[in-house]
Structures are given as structure tokens and as C-alpha cells.
Amino acid sequence: MLPAPGVALLALGSPERCRALGAELVGAGYGPVLHAAPADVGAAAARTGPGDLAVVECGPPAGGPGCSPAVAALRTAGWRHIVVIGADSRPSAVVGALTTGAGAYLVATVPEPVGPAATGTGTPGSGGRRPRTVVDVAGREQVLSLREIEVVELAAEGLGNVEIGREMGLSALTVKSHLARMTRRLGARDRAHLVLLALRSGVLS
Questions:
Q1: pLDDT value at residue 62
Q2: What's the domain range around 47?
């Protein structure tokens, strides 16, 4: 049996994304979910002590050290899993974060909408102009169906499989299958990581 998730720390530039991801983490069993400004990650890590999951957003380095100091501070403070969301897609930035102790580095890019989503001619009521692709952990774009997008949206609101099924007219088992398939395809570790990938790719509003 996997150990129960523990304390989570979110240091994202958008309060809306923090709230959405925080709600999903609470639904997945994390708690408490702490928040910090991206620039204050080091101080927050030292103040809160060891935790289970930290998600940190870093802006362009502008000649600075990038995400490495924040990752090093979290690792020193004993955080087990560290996910970096970086605006710098250069291999050196990714390798620097990973070698410092990050478990994953997600490049903060929003893919251009493709197909019907690009022209606004998608299925009525589906938000046709929104992106329908999610960047997986390897940096590849993966296309999600409209139904998969709806499942992720409801999961991000903190709904369980039974509640999502009730909203969509599906069985809880079908919802579970959708989530498992997307998790495998995107290389996500779990449901919370899946929602994070969708958030960064612009699938979730």
C-alpha cells in the first residue's frame, strides 16, 4: 500500500491556479496545502519543514540562477517530491533543476489550439476555442477528447469519480478508466499531477 500523501506546498504565480490545484490536492488526501509566493520558496521551505509535495513556478532566469536555489532549499528542508514549472525551456535549465533535486520539470508553454478548437467550430457547449492538447511530462503534445477535458475539469473542482459520473451521465468505473488512461498517456504520477498538466497547458480555465 502506498503511503498517504502529506503536506503540500504550492508556489504558483496565479492565485486562481493555486486555488484550483489546492482543492484537487485536498481531494486527493493531501493536507494541509500551504501557499507561498514563488520568490519566497526558500523561506517557506525553511519555515514549514519537511513536506510531501512542492510545486514551484519559476520565471525566466534573466541571467540569474533559475529554479535551482528554490529546489535546493526545498530538498535541504526535506521535501520528498518537487515539481518545477519553468518558463525556461533550455536543456540546461531543465537539467539544472533535476540535478538539484526536482522530480519533474514542466515547461510553462501553452500550445496553439488545433483542429476545430482553433476555429471555434467544436462541439456546441464544449468551449470550442479552448486548447484541446496537453503537454505531457516528456514535453510532447497529447490531444484530449472533449469528454476527457470535461472529466479533468470536474476533477479539478474536487469532485470524486461518482460525482463526476453523475454530472456526465457515466458510471464511476468509466470515469476511473478515463482518468487512468489520461494519466498513463501524459506520464502523470497521479490525479493531482494530471490536473496540474492540464492547468499548465491551458485546458482548464
A1: 43
A2: 8-107
